[in-house]
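Hey, resending since the last one bounced:
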Amino acid sequence: MKKVVFVCVENSNRSQMAEAFARIHGNGKVEPYSAGSRPSGRVNPKAIEAMRELGYDLTTHTSKGLDAFNGNEVEVAITMGCGDECPLVIAKQRLDWQIPDPRDMTPEQFREVRNLIECKVKELIATL
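The structure tokens again:
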């Protein structure tokens, strides 16, 4: 299995949903993680609700930092458009998806971002 880490600043929305979709669609092909350069310490209730609508329980996730990746290589490190370069993460491949931060969006806009993340995760898994 290939280790993939999804990174955003707070590890409360985009990276959490990306990790969830990688768990849903990874089928044993990926070992997904998410982290934040400055974790908020909580998963956004809007993200929890958006994933609940699809039958995934995001309350089992926690907002965490990058410390676990310091010096540990992953196959792919994906930033979500936050501008972080994540120097602690050693990755064979780096991608930046430029996904807008849905934190202050309406529920409908939040779902659009969620669906975009799901599409991107499916595309990624197909290439690994």
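The CA atoms of residues 104 and 110 lie 8 Å apart.

Sorry for the duplicate.
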